[in-house]
Amino acid sequence: MRSSPRRARRLAAVLALPLAITLNALPVLAAPSPQPSEIAPDRPSSTAQNGVALMRVVVPDQAAVDRLAALGVDLAEYTKPVDGGIEVHAVLSPEETRDLRDKGFDVRDAISDQSDYAANTAERRQALASASADAAETDTLTPLRAEWFTSLDGRRFLSVEVKTSATDAETVLTATWDSGPGTAPGSGGTATMSRFTDAGQYMYHRFNTPLPVDQTPAKVTVTSSRGGSVTVPVTKWLGEPRKAPGAHYVQDFVDHYMDPTEVTGRITALAKEFPAISQIVDLPYKTNGYRRAAQAQFGTAAASTFYVTSKAYGAEGGNEVSVALARPSTASAPLSVAVNGKAVTVSLATDASGAIVSTAAQVVAALNGDSAASALLSAATYRGNAGAGVVAEAPATSLTDNLKAPATVSRQPFQMKVLRIGKHRDGSRTGVFLYCQEHAREWVTPITCVETAERLLRNYDTDAATRKLVDNLDIFILPTVNPDGGHYSMYDYNMQRRNMTNYCPAANGDPARRNSWGVDLNRNFTVGSVFDGYTGASTSCTSDTFGGPAELSEPETRNEVWLTDTFRNIKFAMNTHSYGGYFMWPPGAYKTAGREVLPRADFGTENYFWDASGHILSAVQAWRGTAIWPGRTGPVTDVLYSAAGNSADEHWYNRGIIGWDFEVGADVYDPATKQYQAVGFQPPFSEGHEEAMEFANGQIAILEVARTYADDHDRPDSRLEVTGTTATSATFTFSTDEPANVYYTLDGSRPTLSSPKLAAAGMREGAQKITVDRTTEVHWFSVDIAGNVEKNYKPDGNGKNYDKETVQVGDAR
């Protein structure tokens, strides 16, 4: 809503100040009475006048905002504090823009102008035309998934995903289902499906949350308001039978949340206890450490506030520095600085009456200009303020780093350690990298990694299944990727996501910003990063998704890359996060414009991800019945959001490591309210413990998947399936008995690894269908993920033992 030029306005400008500081009213500039000719009073409407735009205007204070209102400027109801004052938005013609600039107003760039209006109206016309065209014909529904599952207390749930060819928001899909084989359609229930869009693009329809059902449905029918309809069978999701652990299998090794020092000490002790099958790998790059410079802040109003920051870290002497602001006993005293050891005293200037006249900016300059003081500290005005306000005297105030962890937590750079488990740790076995706590506040994840390590080592001698994993794999467990942030989250600010490295300039360096510093480690990698234009990370140093000043700027992320580069036998990885109950894989990032997604895994690999997910998630479910929803399983960009510069993409695209992401902490269904309840980053330990146990199950299952891969010498089998024929064409696809890629030719040539490869029909859909317009002899072969080739065919050789079949068109025989 925009204001009327005739209406009096007052826009409140609020500047958030730290701790107990209160912002007094900013100084008010005298506002001259406007002259009738200053602003044209009868300007045509913004939609009629060429060149009118919504413009940014930055003014120094509230008085200038009031002056704009008094001048009759068409102000939008928007205001925010910025460096240099207050930003407001105004609807201005080119003439009004020039007039305001002539009067000294800082009128900046346009937020939107008539070209945006034209684009919006054109887009609207296109949408209306598209909707009209869609309404004229029946839409086609493509079923993606229809599954039932049980969770926790055994309650049944239904999950359905369907894509319509009519992508407009007016198209409504309704699902109905039966009560089991032989029951009437619709007897089980009916529900309207939600339209799922991402980055402005239609994806598919689904239930926002799985629906509770009393009976297990056999079929579900989805109908569209456009007339389309499809009926599909409902299959079971998860619940793969798993062999119960042996009688002597031990588990449940964590009984409290642990800080990074504890979990690192835990894996170090394990390596000492089990030296024959484990060792510690020290990662080469030490972190910045759980440490910060010490600070103190003086003042109660923005203009008279300044802060000081020690040159040394707090634990290395910064906490011993103090600053006092003294009032001289004489009038007309000059501003001066004195240093005694680490005690800094600023003697404030006074006027002839003895009143203090030193401004914040002058005190800052004096401190920074004194060689003894500047050796101890630096000073800055509050968040870039000019600092024209007069400061007040203040007693000696000690600087502090405000860090509250006990002395058991070192303030020095942290040595990150990986626990390497395996009977043969020489690179000859398939490697698996399990890593946790990239995000500091996710307290369940490090104890999940610890639990997995304990199970592997303590069950080796007594459990045959565990022994097979340890004997045949090379397992790397990093329980805390973010030790500095993890300590800060546990002892200082529990919602800390990032590490503790501060890249902010002085304008964002005051003590109240201390919870806003650091780099999001899972946005600091090199593939699909914010620096490449991908969505889901920020270049702002105070953002929770700050991608850092450059790719791999952080020692923590460089350690991950070093590990996967050094141990090239690593073929699988699992990045464990919380919360929400997701199971995901690459691609993990896209560019918002056009939703340009990183290259998807090929069809065979995608099927491998899905196939493995059933095994892994069934293991999670086996602990207490938790089912990860089908709708929260899949590529990151399909089921969550874009995460520019994440680690799974780094390892997959740069090294071919098949990597997953766990988000532990699935929503818990409350049958009383019939609602799902989120568990959060740090649930009560009783819940956190259960999450650690069930997802340690999942990590063990990933090792089982890796061992199966390592032992896979079975060749895949494939077949061609004709799916439709007409008088002039035929359509076919391929199926395989295991996840595998199919390479084919249609011109009678010998297929190779350079031949066309069977692709997916679309996101979360099955295999593409290939159409030919004449009778064609198709040649093909398949290759599974482990590299086994169907019939032992040599794609780079001269053999002809590939598959062959003729697809008939029309009456050809």
Q: Any idea what the shape is?
A: globular
Structural class: alpha+beta
CATH level-1 class of the largest domain: Alpha Beta
Contiguous helical run count: 14
Give me the CATH fold name of the largest domain. Answer: Aminopeptidase
Radius of gyration: 33 Å
Largest sheet: 8 strands, mixed
Query: Segments where pLDDT lies below 50 for 5+ residues?
Result: 1-48
- Determine the CATH superfamily of the largest domain: Zn peptidases
- C-alpha termini separation: 71 Å
User: In the CATH classification, which architecture of the largest domain applies?
Assistant: 3-Layer(aba) Sandwich
Number of extended strands: 39
Word description of this protein:
- It is built from 14 helices and 39 strands.
- It is of the alpha+beta class.
- Strands 15-23-25-24-26-31-27-30 form an eight-stranded mixed sheet, with helices on both faces.
- The protein is globular and about 110 Å long.
- The protein has five domains: 1-136, no CATH class; 141-236, Sandwich (Immunoglobulin-like), CATH 2.60.40; 260-287 and 411-710, Zn peptidases (Aminopeptidase); 293-398; 718-807, Immunoglobulin-like (Sandwich), CATH 2.60.40.
- Residues 792-813 are annotated as: Disordered.
- Residues 378-706 form the Peptidase M14 domain.
- InterPro entries: GH29D-like_dom, Peptidase_M14.
- This is Peptidase M14 domain-containing protein.
